[in-house]
Specification:
By secondary structure, this protein is mainly alpha-helical. 85% of the residues lie in helices and 0% in strands. The N and C termini lie far apart (63 Å).
Length: 87
């Protein structure tokens, strides 16, 4: 009986861990959305051509996270990074 209880609790904790991981992914997706990147890009001094190329860079979730994190620290540096990714 104790073994069944332990198995049940183990399965329950695995399900809870999986649920937390899914919630974290959803939260991160919202924090680093394409919409936020495009909005931030609009506040920068880039050309129209650069802005169009940047949209392709923003398709990759890691790039969005890097870009928005860099924007919090230094807008000019974030724009330089973006230009290097578009090259």
């Amino acid at each position: 009986m104790m073994e069944r209880y332990i198995e049940m609790k183990s399965k329950q904790s695995e399900e809870e861990i999986a649920q937390l991981a899914r919630e974290k992914e959803c939260s991160q997706a919202a924090d680093y959305s394409i919409k936020k990147c495009v909005s931030m890009l609009g506040a920068m001094d880039g050309t129209k051509e650069e802005k169009l190329k940047a949209y392709s860079v923003f398709k990759i979730p890691e790039n969005r996270e890097i870009f928005l994190s860099a924007c919090e620290d230094d807008l000019e540096c974030a724009l330089c990074w973006l230009r290097s990714e578009m090259a």
